[in-house]
Amino acid sequence: MTAKRSLNAAPPLRRAIAVVGALAAFMTIFTAASAFPAFAQTIKGGAVGAKPGAFKGLSKNSNEPIDITSERLTVYDAKKVAVFTGKVRAVQGDTTLRTTELHVFYKGSANPLGTAPDADRVADAEGQTAPSPEGGEGGGDAAQNPASQLTKIEAKGNVVIVNGENQSSRGDHLLYDVETQLVTMTGNVLITSDKDQTTKGDTAVYDMTKETVTVRGDVLLSKGKEQSAHSDWAIYDVPGELVTVGGNVVLTQGQNVLKGNKLVVDLASGQSRFENTGDASANNRIRALFMPNEGGKGKSSKGDSGEDEDGGPMQLIPRSN
C-alpha cells in the first residue's frame, strides 16, 4: 500500500503548487472563448463596437500569481498527476475558474514535489497560493520552470470560467493539452456576456497555434430574444478577423429569416456574405424571408440571393457611418 504523507504548507507543497501555477497561462488563454458572444452579436446585426475585447493579448501569459483553494489536494508522484478535489476555485487576476475536480499532469525526471517517486502526498490545500514561475521555491527544473513540465490540465464537473468583463464560459468538462496547444470545453457549453449575448454548443475549442475558436454541435448564437443564428458549427479566426458559420445556417432577426449553407463575416471590412457550398438543388439554395414593417412601410420578398425587392442586401452588420 502506498504511503501517504501530510503536508502543511511546507516548501515542497509550494513547489507542488508552483507546477499548478502554470494554470495561469491556461486561464488567460481560455478566457478568449468568452468573446464568442461578441462576434455572435456581429453576425446577427447587433451593435458592433470594438473588436472582441477578451481576445486582446491572447498569446501573453500573465505573471500574476494564481490562488487555488480546494478541500483536498492529492499528488500521485508515480502517476505524475496532482488532483484538487472539493469546491475547487482558482483565481488569477480578474479571471476565476471553478470546478468539482482539477487534475494537473506533468512529466520529466525532475520531481516537482521533492519526494520519493513511490509516495503519494495528500494535503489540505485550502488557501494555498501558487507563485509565478519566477517566484518558485526550491531546486530542480520543475520548480524553476513548472510550465515546461506540464502535459495537460483537466477540469471535471461543473466547469465555470468567469473574467472581469462579465463574460463566462460553462461546461461539463475542460481539457488543456500542452502538446497540441488545444483547450477544449465539452458538455452543455454555454458562453455568455453582460450584453445579453449567448453562445451554446456541444463543444468549444481554442487552438492556441492557429488562434481560432471553434464551436460545434447544435450551435446557437443569440442576442436577446429577437436575434439568433442556428448552425452546425461556427469558427472565429482571430488574426484574420474572419467569422465563418456553417451547416444549415438559419439567421433570424424578428420575423425576418435568412437560410443558407455557410455565412462568412469579415470583421475588418464589415462585409458579410452567404455562400452555397453544395449544388444548385432546392435544398442548397439560399433562401430569405423578409416581413413587412409595421404600418405597411416595409416590403416582403423571397429570393435566392438574400436581396429585397429594391436590390439591397440584408444588413447583417450595421454600417459604421
From TrEMBL:
<feature type="region of interest" description="Disordered">
    <location>
        <begin position="290"/>
        <end position="321"/>
    </location>
</feature>
<dbReference type="GO" id="GO:0030288">
    <property type="term" value="C:outer membrane-bounded periplasmic space"/>
</dbReference>
<dbReference type="Pfam" id="PF03968">
    <property type="entry name" value="LptD_N"/>
</dbReference>
<keyword id="KW-0732">Signal</keyword>
<dbReference type="GO" id="GO:0009279">
    <property type="term" value="C:cell outer membrane"/>
</dbReference>
<feature type="domain" description="Organic solvent tolerance-like N-terminal">
    <location>
        <begin position="68"/>
        <end position="211"/>
    </location>
</feature>
<dbReference type="GO" id="GO:0015920">
    <property type="term" value="P:lipopolysaccharide transport"/>
</dbReference>
<dbReference type="InterPro" id="IPR052037">
    <property type="entry name" value="LPS_export_LptA"/>
</dbReference>
<dbReference type="GO" id="GO:0017089">
    <property type="term" value="F:glycolipid transfer activity"/>
</dbReference>
<feature type="region of interest" description="Disordered">
    <location>
        <begin position="115"/>
        <end position="146"/>
    </location>
</feature>
<protein>
    <submittedName>
        <fullName>Lipopolysaccharide transport periplasmic protein LptA</fullName>
    </submittedName>
</protein>
<dbReference type="InterPro" id="IPR005653">
    <property type="entry name" value="OstA-like_N"/>
</dbReference>
<feature type="domain" description="Organic solvent tolerance-like N-terminal">
    <location>
        <begin position="223"/>
        <end position="270"/>
    </location>
</feature>
